[in-house]
Amino acid sequence: MKRGTRIVALIMLVASCLLVVESAVLAQDTEIHRGGTLIIALAGPANSLNPFRSTGASNRWVKGSLYEGLLQLGPSAELYPELAESWQRINDTTYVFHLRHGVKFHNGLEVTAQDVKFSYEYIMNPKSGAYLFSAFQAIKGIKVNDDYTITITLKYPYAPFLTYLGYQEAPVSSKVWFEEAKRELASEEMGTGPFKLESREVGVKTTLVKFNQFHVKGEPYLDKVIFVPYSDADARMNALKLKEVDFVVYPPYKDWAEIRTNPDLRLVSGKGSAMSIYYNTSVKPFNDPRVRRAIRYAINPEVIAKLVFYGEAQPFNGPMIPKGHWAYNKDLSEYFSYNPTKAKALLVQAGYPNGFHATLLCASQYAMHYKTGEIVAEQLSKVGIKVKLQLLEWSVVNQHKLLGNYEFMIQGGYALGPDPDSYSLYFGPDATFWAKPVGFNDPELSRLLEEGRVTTDRDKRKVIYHQYEERWLELSPWNRLVWRTEGFAMRSDVKGFKFILGGLDQWTYGLRWSLPTMWLDR
User: Fold this and answer.
1) What is the per-residue pLDDT across 445-467, written as a single tens digit (0 to 9) for each?
2) 8 A C-beta contact, residue 160 and residue 453
3) In whole numbers, what is the pLDDT of the chain averaged over residues?
4) Would you tell me how many other CB atoms lie within 10 Å of the CB of residue 104?
5) Residue 183 to residues 59, 115, 179, 208: CA-CA distances in angstroms?
6) CA distance 304 to 389
7) Calpha distance 121→3 (Å, rounded)
8) How far is CA 26 from CA 19, 30, 65, 82, 519, in A?
9) pTM of structure
10) Which of 411, 434, 421 has its CA nearest to residue 484?
11) pLDDT tens, position by position, 75-116
């Protein structure tokens, strides 16, 4: 072989080897690696596993991995089958659901229509304290046709019914498991989710392990997930930087720019929750809607968005239905503005020309709560309202809220659920949601809610909810301040996280490592 020919052959051989190496690297990058343990730093302890109640974000992270329902809500509130493989709307009040065959609970028993009936009747029991108790009062009857088919009949046409079935708080649990012993739902579980409970040290950590009989083929990817509470946001971020944890919820807004430029970390964000003021409308002066509106006019949400959220929030000047929703009302989107003069005039009308003294309750461990409270206090002082901050640990704040032991408070929370009827979870006459304003009830709002839920024509519903929101703003049982962007920080080699409904729902299905499993031993 001539020298020139040998050189060409050598070059081709090297190129071929490089192509093989490159292909192997690409295959490794795109391969779904299985196994490993993921440690997630929560913002607080997961104190309750009760899947039927709304007990805070930290609990939802855990419960969302343990339980499933008939249906599942997607990122844009679209409905997907979960335990039900299909469903039919027979007429305005009758629905038939066909269950997947072979789905197992964590105890190995197969899911049947009897389990669905039992779970839904549990939600309908007023003693359950279920989040969806009010919504499920629309159910007239539940008939088990056979092991895999169930018919639900409603008392009246109920437009948001299917949407509520997609809520995390509408899970299916085992009837046999419930009835064989007295169960403590706060500390026990029996779901069908991708993970099952291995161990739990309240306030220390909660450990979930892969459910090997999970009905979705090939999932979950991880062997184990450990949830560890860090009430201090800076401590959570330090734990991530030191590789003590792999994933952090609610990283401090001040750190977002650094996370985005750190090649070892990744930030996933999206439209999240609203920061609000809740009023105890049973005590003076907050029993007067003019006072509540005056407070909102006295607050400049632009300052909160800039100083508390480092620009990662937008002023929330209107009602709760967001832009892009079919029931959005552009005419009400700027109902409130920063107007201290108007605030003072409303205080005069309400009989408080010199203002008043009040105590504002805030969570001490969440900077976005107490810093919002500090700005609110400073701005209200300009219209004569002298505010004392009451800073308490988050769980104590919730106890005060449930007992009505507060005057007004800073609170987070979603803007609204996928259907406008989710207003009823906060303000309906039968609402059991823990954040319902204390002492607030308005017959006209209740009437409009009732009319909206039994009307199936979307255009007619839209008119109803526009009327509802106009009155809601006039009464202002809550005042929304800003709509914050929600963020989650993680190691760059954590893959598969999707931002769905604030990141709280169905998140574990696709989570995985991008590294070989052998590197992940802990």
Assistant:
1) 989 998 998 898 999 999 999 99
2) yes
3) 86
4) 16
5) 18, 16, 8, 19
6) 16
7) 85
8) 10, 6, 31, 33, 18
9) 0.78
10) 411
11) 666 788 999 999 999 999 999 999 999 999 999 999 999 999
